[in-house]
Write a structure and sequence with these properties.
It is globular and about 75 Å long. The chain folds into two domains: 254 residues, 3-Layer(aba) Sandwich (Rossmann fold), CATH 3.40.50; 36 residues, no CATH class. It has ten helices and ten strands. Helix 7 links the parallel strand 6 and strand 7. Helices cover 42% and strands 22% of the residues. The longest helix is centred in the first third of the chain and has 25 residues. It has 303 residues and is of the alpha/beta class.
């Protein structure tokens, strides 16, 4: 479907959104092609191997390549053969819990959820341009929306409309639950882009499983007030997920030290986990342009 024809059939409410996302996507594509001196299609290609077939064992084959299930049938010893993955389907797994609504306000800075939606939208348009299948899982502590991977601009526009109209049922976060949903929904090796603020606990086992079974990219979203909490004196702070309200002296050294320590510990734990699993990680701030960092991530993937 030609882009102009597809855009003409969009609902009026989505036209400006698609125009803005397409501008970001073009910037990203141009930057990738200029810096990598290569084809933008490499962004959506696999970087590993996928199972192809089995054949009889030959002298010199590695023992670890033996398919013991097939060999046990008594017709000889067989080894697995693989082919290089040239194109993967893509799944964006987006945390839409209430903590993602933090941010916004000053100088039009978006919320974390707005940034996550924009990133998902740019990837959808990019995948459609490259004829790659892209799907979406929006999660909180439950499955909020699932769209199976599909190709083409029509599918990309449908995903944008559903995502930007989504009103999550639950306010709570459970990253481990979201990852288990991803594992249960995917039947083949997939490039999974996991987008969250990762303000949660006890998801390390699930993330490790996801990294071992799929090609994983982790995107952490961060609001500026989370990185450096403003000293506002005694103010009421409400937990976005539980709704609990408490009065806090945000200028007190003890509060500021505790907040900074918790933030640094969370960041370090996520970096360590991703490094151990050899997973690409980028942290995107809502008050910064995300395109350069995304280009840097894709440069690493191509390398």
């Amino acid at each position: 479907m030609p882009p102009a024809t597809a855009s003409a059939r969009l609902p009026a409410s989505l036209t400006a959104l698609v125009r803005r996302l397409r501008h970001l996507e073009i910037r990203m594509r141009q930057a990738v092609e200029a810096q990598l001196q290569g084809n933008f299609r490499s962004v959506f290609r696999g970087n590993g191997l996928e199972f192809d077939d089995v054949r009889l064992y030959q002298y010199g084959d590695e023992v670890r390549a033996i398919d013991w299930a097939v060999s046990s049938k008594g017709h000889g010893t067989f080894v697995k053969t693989y082919k290089e993955e040239r194109e993967q389907q893509v799944l964006v797994a987006l945390d839409v819990s209430a903590s993602q609504r933090v941010g916004g306000g000053a100088a039009g800075t978006p919320r974390k959820l707005d940034l996550g939606r924009d990133l998902a939208g740019v990837l959808a348009l990019s995948a459609a341009r490259q004829d790659s299948a892209l799907g979406l899982l929006a999660f909180s502590d439950q499955k909020e929306l699932f769209l199976p991977p599909a190709k083409g601009l029509r599918a990309a526009y449908a995903m944008l409309q559903r995502l930007y109209e989504l009103v999550p049922v639950s306010r709570h976060t459970a990253i481990g639950v979201g990852i288990r949903q991803v594992l249960s929904l995917l039947r083949r090796r997939t490039l999974v882009v996991l987008i969250s603020d990762f303000i949660d606990e006890n998801y390390e086992r699930e993330l490790t499983m996801l990294a071992r079974q799929h090609d994983l990219v982790v995107v952490q979203l961060l609001a500026p007030q989370e990185a450096d909490f403003p000293a506002l004196g005694i103010v009421p702070l409400r937990d976005a997920e539980t709704g609990l309200l408490r009065w806090v002296d945000t200028s007190a050294p003890a509060f500021r030290a505790q907040h900074a320590g918790q933030q640094q510990a969370r960041q370090q734990a996520l970096r360590t986990l991703c490094r151990r699993q050899r997973v690409g990680l980028i942290t995107l701030r809502t008050d910064e342009d995300f395109v350069p960092q995304l280009v840097g991530l894709f440069r690493q993937r191509k390398g």
